[in-house]
């Protein structure tokens, strides 16, 4: 009221006591000011407003600077070489602006720090350690696995109840029990039983290609359809027929899972860089409609099988057996069961289809590779009378070709782990604090001329028996490594080779 009085051109007449008491006792008296006096008081008030605003901005900037200094000095304080962070965005402004992808960026950094066994970066505001040295990578993935058992992201149950129960996402100790439960799915005996299902899809692929005659075919799309058919048959017991039916629901949903629209980009950004975004917007890990479709479908099939007592030797049968066994060490029911089928479909679909596409591309431009591979396959069919599990396992050159495809076109370009307990690695004088994210840039290792001379050359002979022995251990990690490696990789070999 006093200030209001002043600006409206009134004086406050003193009557003794403090302003407060005078004001409260209503002992103030407003007296009309002259024009000059009024403009003087207005100026005083304006200046005060400006000073207050500047002070406020200054305090804010100071606090932000303190935060930035404390947060982004993490690696320098530890005397670990690191990338200079950009304001509050850490090292990822280019990725946020879609100028570079995360894998490209990590591969560039891998090359830049060629003399360092490890270096630091900032994932938004979180420090992350990037490991370059294969022996150090082995140390983290295997020797010190107990301190780095989880992937460094959390899927919020309220944001995505299906993905959060998957083997890929769960954290230790639940992960350990679940992995032990699911590992028997991929024994050679079980995979052998799935081979006829895969061969059915191979026959549809052959018929489809035969019917194309001399037409130009988009092989990436064809491989996507083949992978959809194989994985839907092995994991859901459904023949998706996507090679025959253009609008196959499975194919549509499979594509949706990996749709790269704005929401999916924000979700990937959030899960990797800024978990707070996920919490606030409740973003699902993969496309919600597609995961819900696959989840519901799984339950329909499971109930049908249980009521008709039919079996097909696929993943659904194995999951029903696991659900019904008397193992009390883990509660394996409800969404925990269906989530595994959905996650096997999503983990295996795109990776398998892209690997086969790249293999076909390399064979098209390397006729010698194609000829040698064809000869090996014909020899195996002559020996066994057909494509058989044993025959596929014996095909050395086929294995070499796919190893080289997975080196040159690494499907999972980096691994990520979370340090759950302070860890000191004396050989490297490296102390990883609890809570630090650890990144292993596989694509960088696979393209390092130190391990793979002339890395852009497609050369399956790098993986011949003789040359394989000369490879630096832990420089080749297409399926990750250690107890948390890809659970499906034995199955992958059979599916893609067939
Ligand atoms: C070419 C095909 C594939 C590639 C390159 C690939 C690669 C990978 C990689 C790099 C990881 C992370 C490993 C780590 O963190 O150390 C992984 C994990 C995983 N993959 Fe695969 N994968 C492929 C196919 C499949 C298939 C077909 C399935 C399903 C049957 C599958 C299921 C999984 C699961 C469930 C995990 C998480 C394992 C865990 O956390 O215990 N993958 N995969």
From TrEMBL:
Membrane-spanning parts: 50-68
PROSITE patterns: CYTOCHROME_P450
Membrane topology, as annotated: Peripheral membrane protein
GO MF: heme binding; iron ion binding; monooxygenase activity; oxidoreductase activity, acting on paired donors, with incorporation or reduction of molecular oxygen
Cofactor list: heme
Compartments where found: Endoplasmic reticulum membrane; Microsome membrane
UniProt-recorded name of the protein: Cytochrome P450
Species for this entry: Oryctes borbonicus
Lineage: Eukaryota, Metazoa, Ecdysozoa, Arthropoda, Hexapoda
